[in-house]
Design a protein that fits this description.
Low-confidence stretches: none
Number of strands: 0
Order of helices and strands: HHHHHHHH
Number of helices: 8
Number of domains: 1
Strand content: under 5%
Distance between the termini: 39 Å
Shape: globular
Structural class: mainly alpha
Radius of gyration: 18 Å
Length: 180
């Protein structure tokens, strides 16, 4: 979980910092209402996609997870830390919830490295927490893999919850943009 939190924070700060640097270099700042509207439309489209109403292309991600050789060469704590680093960044792993990209978009649109570091650090911790819980109860790596396979049964419900949250965020963001 530490690795996921640290890398999430660093990645969020880097994304926001890069946008901030571009804004300063080109003396351009996207108006808040336009940013809210863009984020709202993104959340609405991908929220509807998570709910199964639309079929949209997935943003960048990798479908591979931990290299198999890590099981042989690292202790479980070492493997967990390095795996957590990938989880925190997000795009280096398989992303099960599309709200990750909404959070990443928010980091870019705010162009505030400190806030982005906090939010992405929390998101990374949230991604790492289930792994920590599974690892703390597992008797072996094979046992933990079995637990993870059984948890895939709830993936559909997680995706539905993600779609509802994204749709609600879309309505709030679009409402903010219209009122501005």
């Amino acid at each position: 979980m530490l690795g996921a939190t640290l890398s999430g924070s660093a990645f969020g700060a880097a994304v926001a910092g890069a946008v901030l640097a571009l804004e300063k270099a080109f003396s351009f700042r996207l108006p808040g209402s336009a940013a809210a509207l863009g984020a709202g439309v993104f959340c609405l489209l991908y929220g509807l996609s998570s709910l199964g109403f639309l079929r949209l292309p997935l943003p960048p991600q990798r479908h591979s997870q931990v290299p198999h050789g890590w099981r042989l060469s690292m202790t479980p704590r070492q493997m967990g830390f390095w795996y957590g680093l990938g989880l925190g960044v997000g795009v280096a792993t398989f992303v099960r919830v599309l709200s990750f990209y909404a959070v990443l978009l928010w980091c870019a649109l705010t162009a505030d490295p400190l806030r982005a570091a906090i939010v992405m650090g929390l998101f990374g911790a949230g991604r790492g927490l289930p792994i920590l819980v599974i690892a703390s109860r597992a008797e072996s790596i094979d046992h933990s893999l079995g637990v993870m396979k059984r948890l895939r049964a709830v993936t559909r419900y997680v995706r539905l919850a993600d779609g509802v949250v994204m749709s609600m965020a879309a309505l709030m963001l679009i409402g903010l943009a219209v009122r501005s």
